[in-house]
Prior knowledge:
The protein is mainly α and 167 residues long. Helix content is 56%, strand content 2%. The chain has four helices and two strands; from the N terminus they run ααββαα. The longest helix has 64 residues, at 33-96.
Amino acid sequence: xxxxxxxxxxxxxxxxxIAFEEAIDPETGEISEDLYERLDAxxxxxxxxxxxIGMWIKDLQGDARxxxxxxxxxxxxxxxxxxxxxSLKGYLEYCLHGEKFSSPEVxxxxxxxxxxxxxDDFILTADDEYLRFKDPEPDKTxxxxxxxxxxxxxxxxxxxxxxxxxx
Length: 167
């Protein structure tokens, strides 16, 4: 017998259950032994297939968790290296006081740049043309609280979903 997918097994089991009902001998009430055996075998195959898929999902979830942990460790190391480089850069600025330095391996020089700095209370006194405003976004926590309290919130609803859990 060739390898069946879980979907194909489920379809065949449904067909066998229909055949099961039709295969009852009206006089004796007996059912063909072959039908019993095939249904039992399919249920076993299906159970094994579901078990294997579940185990595969657990393996993939474990891999994803390990990859995320490794990525976090690498991101933390990168951030530490960036912070150390910034600290050393500040130290060089202090030591060189604008003086250039050159060697075969490294050049240190200065470039003028300009940027805008604003006072802490700038937002309170500035005209709107000098401010950026974020687009509003729904506060789903408050919306959910209102809906649970039977308050009508047009355009919002609570949706119940089923989520499969593999442990």
